[in-house]
Amino acid sequence: MAENSPSPSPERAIYGFVLYLGTYFGFGLYLIWACVPEEWLHSIGITYLPQRYWVLAAPIYLCVAFVFAVIFYVAYNFTITLPVDSINTITDTHARYEGEDTKPVLPGSVPPLYDIPLRQVNKVLYGDGITSYSCDSH
What we know:
Keywords: GPI-anchor biosynthesis, Membrane, Transferase, Transmembrane, Transmembrane helix
Order of helices and strands: HHHH
Pfam families: PIG-P
Structural class: mainly alpha
Membrane topology: Multi-pass membrane protein
Function: Part of the complex catalyzing the transfer of N-acetylglucosamine from UDP-N-acetylglucosamine to phosphatidylinositol, the first step of GPI biosynthesis.
Family: Belongs to the PIGP family.
């Protein structure tokens, strides 16, 4: 069984090249449809074409759909975020907080990972009436 890898493979290169050529071919057809007069297209036998309205409408609709998709994505993430007092935001026994690790850290090394308490995150994000962003206990 082959292992999944992000490295290039011959199949991916072929698919990518075909997609590359296909997009340029499609864009060329779009430009021909948008710029060449209909009489010229009818003279070479191309008679079934969408209305010229779609030359501008389709890209505009796609751009607006992209903007609404981004707005919807952000709004959806706000709706599924749990409230602070939810039972699901309580930590478990596997949480590691700063200061609990007794192993010495070598100078210049990467510090160990640890969890940040929800109270400290909210204090930095939303403040507590104090203008300082220090998260130290007073």
